[in-house]
Amino acid sequence: MSTSNITSTHPAAFLLVGIPGLEHLHVWISIPFCFTYTLALLGNCTLLFIIQADAALHEPMYLFLAMLATIDLVLSSSTLPKMLAVFWFRDQEINFHACLTQMFFLHSFSIMESAVLLAMAFDRYVAICKPLHYTSVLTRPLITKIGMAAMIRAVALVTPLPFLLRRFHYCRSPKIAHCYCEHMAVVKLACGDTRFNNIYGIAVAMFITVLDLLFVILSYIFILHAVLQLASQEARYKAFGTCVSHIGAILSTYTPVVISSVMHRVARRVAPHVHILLAVFYLLFPPMVNPIIYGVKTKQIRDHVLSLFWKKSV
């Protein structure tokens, strides 16, 4: 067997097209993207600062929230700076290995986010259904183990992707019809049999989304059952009110995923830029809106934010 048959040939760099069909609007599109990214940075950094500074917030719910804020920062920061460089300066070139690295961070931290949302559902389940055992169940060692498990699962599932992509020959155009290096967008440039990559990518996405969402739904079925058994309406409202922020985070994360998945299967003739805009929306919207949701609905965080502004105004 010749060497050319067993070694891969890949370009030194890919070219990120941006949003195909909307290249003439890149500068205008970048304005809301930049604004959203700035809000995400400010909101999540503020959350992390408040949780770290106040020992009273070193409780399971807030520790999981700190994990979510960190993940949101990495998710948005791994894609948005390069995306804005494409839109503003037409800096489309991205090194092959940098592309694979971006793809790894994008997909692994997306999986981690799903795991943390599931952990937060478990936190709410224990708090409402087993309130007397809350502190004994959700201990610091267990929270650490949950965080490590979320990271290990994500890394284990995503690590094969860069290695699978490195073995391909890339004989087509090096232009990626996307704003960032997404797995399937890179696979489309590869020559040869890419069926395993296609199947593996879809299987991981379906496994994570369906499994995590199923357990989240089960948690809320038990929570709803426990809430409805409370004697007074005020107690029910207060108990379920502690879940509103988490439900908002789940909706902000999974809604774009579900819409994108449905459109890929039902509306196959939809212009490519619609799918890309939905994908970018998934990356930008949760990191921006999650700090707002928790800041508005969580009294401890809201009071800290107001006190910060009050000190500055005095």
Automatic annotation (TrEMBL):
The chain crosses the membrane at residues 25-50, 62-80, 100-122, 142-165, 199-227, 239-262, 274-296. The keyword Cell membrane applies. GO terms for cellular component: plasma membrane. GO terms for molecular function: G protein-coupled receptor activity; olfactory receptor activity. Keywords: Cell membrane, G-protein coupled receptor, Membrane, Olfaction, Receptor, Sensory transduction, Transducer, Transmembrane, Transmembrane helix. Odorant receptor. Putative odorant or sperm cell receptor. This is Olfactory receptor. It comes from Phyllostomus discolor (pale spear-nosed bat). The lineage of its organism: Eukaryota, Metazoa, Chordata, Craniata, Vertebrata. The gene is LOC114500710.
